[in-house]
Amino acid sequence: MKIHSVSTRYSWSFVCMTSLRDRAQLMTNTRCFGRNFVTASSSLPPVQLPAQREVHFWYVLPDEVKSTNLLNQYLEILSPCEKEEIFRIREEQLKKSALLARALVRTTLARYQTKCQIDPKSFKFKKNNYGKPEVDWQSADDWSLPPLHFNISHTSSLIACGVAVGSPIGIDVEEKQRRLKNDILAFAQRFFSPHEIETLTHIADPELRLQEFIKLWTLKEAYVKALGKGFSASPFKTFTVRLRDHMKGDIHALRHVIYKAPDITVEPSVDLKNPSSNWEFVLLELAGSHYAAVCIEQDSIDPGSKSGNGSMPINLTLRKTIPFVEDECISANDSAVVIGGLARLAVCD
Amino acid sequence: MGIANQMGSMSVNSFSFCLNQTQTLVAGCRISKPGSVSLSIKGTTFPSLTLQRRVPRLRVTCAAKPETVNKVCDIVKKQLALPDESSVSGESKFAALGADSLDTVEIVMGLEEAFGISVEEESAQSITTVQEAADMIDKLLESKSA
């Protein structure tokens, strides 16, 4: 989601430019937190790059970030332009959200060090021809990082950043309970594909219908964002996302019934002869409150990727973070469930 | 191009424009005499349209009518559940008001209903400001009544 701004005076309490004395003060204050970090980058534990067919999913919960000092630190690592944009946002929560999103991207990317520590402040970003933000690697001097792809999404209550190597990535998060102002079916009639409308129409229970709608929405968003060509290039009506349920595991052969998450596919709405088989999806339920969709491009030379049953699952590493403070590896449990797509929640390094 | 004038009429051949049946050629402009355009020139040709002192009330604008902008603001406030007194104007970007992509599409749907128009999907998901929405609406309304 792009961060835009409205020209207006800001009222937030911290300042962008700190004097040397203030910086010293800031450092002292942060030491009082019990964490001893001298430079910004030294407090970001390094992380191995994602491998092929691996996605790193980082997220921050704005409600967990309350310290003004910490928010100041985040502000410090932004570019002047990003700071400007944030100062122009009026509403406090939106300002905080925009700040956290930028800080999340910068700190996340900075963790993937190979030779030396990277200062999160040093990243430069640009937009592709369609407006999708990317890292401007050309200004990276002599880093030897392979091209990382990233994508952000935020809701008011959760901000996420997905990272992949060797594949474009799109992610979208939504609150499960998010209400539409319009009637779901009327909305779907207007914007979704015929098959999707049919799927939603057949769900009688309004709550379940809403949940299915949100799942479809996040998957469609993630797909368009992964494509990176903007919504004009792929209007929602022109492609269909399907969640195909599997049969549950054979109860006699196994001690426990293994539920296999539905397959997720995308295909053009009209030309079904030519499905787009090179995009893969993962759908997660996070903290019981959010759906998160991830879309990456399939590795065309991966021998396992074309055949149905032999496909290798995507390894998804899930981390909840408060940058500079703590990272928590989330494994498959109540707070994170794969509810669609061939993926497994991997253990963090 | 709307030009209002009380002098005699004369055709100008250095630029061309179309008059449709309605009073407005461009949103925000009014022509005092429907079906005619008058231009006061005294043997001068105009390579391009310029303001002449002898032509009072020359208004050229491509932006949406203020009423449209206001109506869009109201719909946006409603969709995003913003208080009435919150500042939403033509410049306002949806994202800066807290709208995500789902909100934006819902706003477009609300605008379609309120104005009785139909927006192309390509446009629906790429409108980012109140002004863009209002401009698009006025353009659609204009072509609808043409």
TrEMBL record, chain A:
Alphabetic keyword roster: Transferase
Tagged with keyword Transferase: yes
Tagged with keyword Aminoacyl-tRNA synthetase: no
One Pfam family in the UniProt entry: AASDHPPT_N
Sequence ranges assigned to domain 4'-phosphopantetheinyl transferase N-terminal in this UniProt record: 71-159
E.C. numbers: 2.7.8.7
Residue intervals of the 4'-phosphopantetheinyl transferase domain: 168-252
Single GO term (MF): holo-[acyl-carrier-protein] synthase activity
InterPro entries: 4-PPantetheinyl_Trfase_dom, 4-PPantetheinyl_Trfase_dom_sf, AASDHPPT_N, P-Pant_transferase_sf
The protein's name in its UniProt record: holo-[acyl-carrier-protein] synthase
Lineage, opening ranks: Eukaryota, Viridiplantae, Streptophyta, Embryophyta, Tracheophyta
UniProtKB/TrEMBL annotation, chain B:
Classification via Gene3D superfamilies: ACP-like (1.10.1200.10)
Function: Carrier of the growing fatty acid chain in fatty acid biosynthesis.
GO cellular component labels: chloroplast
Family annotation (PANTHER family): ACYL CARRIER PROTEIN
Protein name in the entry: Acyl carrier protein
Primary location class: plastid
NCBIfam families (UniProt xref): acyl_carrier
Matching SUPFAM superfamilies: ACP-like
